[in-house]
Specification:
By secondary structure, the protein is an alpha/beta fold. The protein has seven helices and eleven strands.
Length: about 260
């Protein structure tokens, strides 16, 4: 099996088609538009930040991603956004003062090791302003979403050249602890043969998430189970977390603005 990823320019060009705008993006866009400075960690092609700029955001927008091919897509469309190649550990964030840090598209789940997770969360804390918010989502492990990632549920998208690309997923064995490994196979399009990407995701329960946040000096102030801001239950598809500095300024911590819709 040949392992490919979205570091590949041809796959990166498909990313927005594979991940069309949805309710989750609307949720994050509301937050971005209410913040003067935003860091999008694992921004991919920067679809969220580009949309925010088009809708009139005039503040600081920064996208961070380890895949240069993904950032190429963002730079081509909007050079006014600051695009940074790397991950949270790639630079010192002290004094960055972002009002909002987000990790969308379940990017939080690619943080696999305990130490990696702690370092990333500590970097987020140092990047936040004293009243800033860190917002991210993970799939609820109780729902066991990976059980539906089967080859028979392939779907198709259209490449830039108009050709059709078939995409299918296959989980590689049972979960190992809270980690699930799977492949994503792309066929058709501009390639002579299949392109296969392998990935592992970590599925953390709410209690475990709270523990890692606390260790990094952060505290979950709100959690939702869906994009309509419903409660987290055993059947909720998501665990959407809003976190702040554990030792914030004096006075009550207030929730973010309600959705515009």
């Amino acid at each position: 099996m040949v392992d490919h990823s979205f570091a590949d320019l041809s796959l990166a060009a498909l990313y927005d088609s594979l991940n069309p705008w949805g309710p989750g993006d609307d949720f994050y866009l509301d937050l971005v538009m209410s913040a003067g400075s935003v860091l999008d960690v694992g921004c991919g092609t920067g679809q969220l930040l580009r949309r925010a700029r088009r809708e009139g955001h005039r503040g600081r927008l920064t996208g961070l991603d380890p895949a240069a091919a993904m950032l190429v897509q963002g730079r081509r469309t909007d050079p006014t956004v600051e695009w940074i190649l790397g991950d949270l550990r790639a630079r010192l964030w002290d004094g960055a003062g972002f009002e909002l840090v987000v990790m969308t598209g379940h990017a939080f789940q690619v943080l696999l090791g305990d130490e990696e997770l702690r370092e990333a969360l500590t970097a987020v804390r140092t990047a936040l302003s004293p009243t800033g918010r860190f917002v991210f989502e993970t799939r609820n492990p109780a729902v066991r979403a990976w059980e539906s990632w089967t080859p028979d549920r392939a779907h198709e998208v259209t490449a830039d050249d108009g050709s059709t690309v078939s995409v299918r997923h296959e989980v590689l064995g049972p979960p190992v602890g809270d980690r699930v490994t799977f492949t994503e196979t792309f066929e058709g399009g501009p390639w002579d043969g299949p392109r296969v990407s392998r990935a592992t995701l970590r599925f953390l329960a709410p209690e475990a998430l709270s523990g890692f946040l606390a260790a990094a000096g952060l505290k979950a102030t709100e959690q939702y189970g869906d994009w309509a801001r419903g409660p987290v239950t055993s059947g909720s598809p998501e665990i959407i977390t809003v976190a702040r500095h554990a030792q914030g300024p004096k006075g009550p911590v207030t929730a973010g603005p309600p959705p515009r819709r």
